[in-house]
């Protein structure tokens, strides 16, 4: 397997594998490497972390800003040096947005309104 499974593909495969051991499930989902000597090593930590991510469980939500927790949503953004406004993944995850979702942009004097293409008018 070239790339380990992630997300819903990972969850479906783990359910499909039923009664296999954790190690066998990890191996079947691509979470292993082969050493120079040809020995197969299962990477359980990466497998278990991928499962946690796939389930949407946020263990780092109580982070104090250190480590891999990332930043929490501050509901403020700044214009970048190239003139772009970047809306981070904390906001898109919170809104349940997926790659490819489209929005209409309406500009006000000092605000930007995004309306999801195809969304009902009463949704906000």
From TrEMBL:
Q: Which PROSITE patterns match?
A: SPOVT_ABRB
Which terms in the Gene Ontology molecular function aspect does this entry carry? Answer: DNA-binding transcription repressor activity; transcription cis-regulatory region binding
Matches recorded under Pfam families = AbrB-like (PF14250)
Keywords (A to Z) from UniProt: DNA-binding
Record InterPro entries: AbrB-like, SpoVT-AbrB_dom
SpoVT-AbrB domain boundaries: 74-119
Q: Does rRNA-binding show up as a keyword for this record?
A: no
Q: Which GO terms describe its cellular component?
A: protein-DNA complex
By its UniProt entry, which PANTHER family does this protein fall under?
A: SLL0359 PROTEIN
Mind telling me what this protein is named? Transcriptional regulator
Q: Which organism is it from?
A: Gloeothece citriformis (strain PCC 7424)
């Amino acid at each position: 397997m070239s790339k380990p499974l992630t997300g819903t593909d990972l969850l479906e495969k783990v359910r499909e594998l039923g009664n296999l051991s954790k190690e066998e499930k990890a191996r079947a989902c691509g979470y292993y490497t082969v050493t120079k000597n040809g020995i197969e090593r299962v990477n359980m930590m990466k497998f278990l972390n991928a499962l946690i991510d796939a389930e949407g469980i946020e263990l780092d939500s109580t982070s104090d800003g250190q480590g891999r927790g990332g930043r929490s949503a501050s509901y403020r953004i700044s214009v970048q040096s190239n003139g772009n406004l970047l809306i981070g993944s904390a906001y898109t995850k919170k809104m349940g947005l997926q790659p490819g979702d489209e929005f209409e942009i309406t500009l006000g004097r000092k605000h930007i309104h995004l309306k999801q293409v195809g969304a009902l008018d009463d949704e906000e």
